[in-house]
Amino acid sequence: MKRDVALILGDGIGPEVMGQASRIVTEAGAEVNWIEAQAGEGALLRCGSTLPQETVDIIEQTKVALKGPLTTPVGGGYRSVNIRLRQHFDLYANVRRTRTYEGVATKYDNIDIITVRENTEGLYCGIGSNPDEHTAMSTRLITEAAERRIITYAFELAGKMGKKKVTALHKANILKATDGLFLRCFEDISAEFPNIAHEDMIIDAACMKLVTDPENFEIIVTTNLFGDIVSDLCSGLVGGLGLTCGNNIGEAAAIFEAIHGTAPAMAGRNNANPSACINAGIEMLKYIGQEQCALRIENSLIKTLKEGKVRTKDLGGSASCSMFADEVIRNME
Ligand code: ATP
Questions:
Q1: Beta bridge partners of 312
Q2: Contacts of residue 252, Cβ cutoff 8 Å, sequence gap at least 6
Q3: Of 19, 70, 260, 309, which residue has the fewest beta carbons closer than 10 angstroms?
Q4: Where are the domains of the chain?
């Protein structure tokens, strides 16, 4: 029986890259019934809201969504739709895997880093104020419950994936209250997983290490903003934002997306790389238990990138977004 999946094409390059990714999922023979939903700036223009209630209802029903990048209009007090979705569905784990692909030129051959980012609080909690026009404050909310939950998730993921080490990134030397609490939770929980090595690193030193010695990292666990930044850094190590996807996982729902944004300057040109969204589609299929189909697309994507006959501009080629997707479909066995 086909599984209902919400499909949000999104803004900017979203409709192009998501259109191709969803086409590939369908062409691979996935038992998926797409239910299109609106969100972002396009939804504001079409339906009068950046997150229409109908979209929330659809995801409540499907419990799983493949989502394109969204624009939050500047001014007008609009809150980020991504953050609202993550908070509404309590998608507490943001899991972003970056790995080297044969055929994509990088300095390193053997990167496979999974960033597990706390997705509901930290500096993204939405608490802030302007006491006067020259002063602004943002609250960095860290709770023991949320940090213990994400750290436990990271160790359990390491166990499931056969990873040997979890590294916590923080700035506890300066952010003594918030990252001090995060680090205490990390020390506590790491003791419950004696078979998995653990280490902690100050975020700035870790960024240097990630650039000079990335093959030394396996699973990173960190707070919301640090995770956002570090996962983009990791993406840059393996060929750029066009490749990496992010899984937003909660107990009751999950939303799969590319980690890149709407890249407005590229929109409408059919030259963005759809690989990050294709990877999001692969992760979505694994999540709903259609592993065979996921593997079919994964092998084809790996083959297409390795052969390098058809490459998008960001990876040094001249193929369009749709030509690349055509090649992935051709390479599916
Ligand atoms: P937003 O405001 O939505 O975050 P942005 O352009 O500021 O958009 P990103 O969309 O994350 O941020 O993109 C940053 C840059 O990375 C883009 O300008 C583009 O050069 C590159 N990029 C992002 N996504 C892709 C992609 N799918 N294919 C090729 N290049 C990409």
A1: 319
A2: 63, 89, 90
A3: 309
A4: 1-94+242-333, 106-238
Q: Please give the distance, rounded to the nearest whole angstrom, from the Cα atom of residue 85 to the centre of ligand 1.
A: 21
Is residue 319 lining ligand 1, measured as CB closer than 6 Å?
Answer: no
Residues in the chain, overall count: 333
Dihedral in degrees, nearest 10, Cα atoms 148, 149, 150, 151: 40
Cβ 260 under 6 angstroms from ligand 1: yes
17 Cβ inside 6 Å of ligand 1: yes
In tens, the pLDDT along 2-11 reads 999 999 999 9
The more confident residue out of 333 and 236 is: 236
Q: Is 115 in the pocket of ligand 1 (CB under 6 A)?
A: no
pLDDT of residue 1: 87
Instruction: Pick the range with the lowest mean pLDDT from 32-41, 238-247, 323-332.
Output: 238-247
Domain 1-94+242-333, classified CATH 3.40.718.10, yes or no:
yes
275 pocket-lining for ligand 1 (C-beta < 6 Å): no
Which atom from ligand 1 is nearest to the alpha carbon of 13? Answer: 27
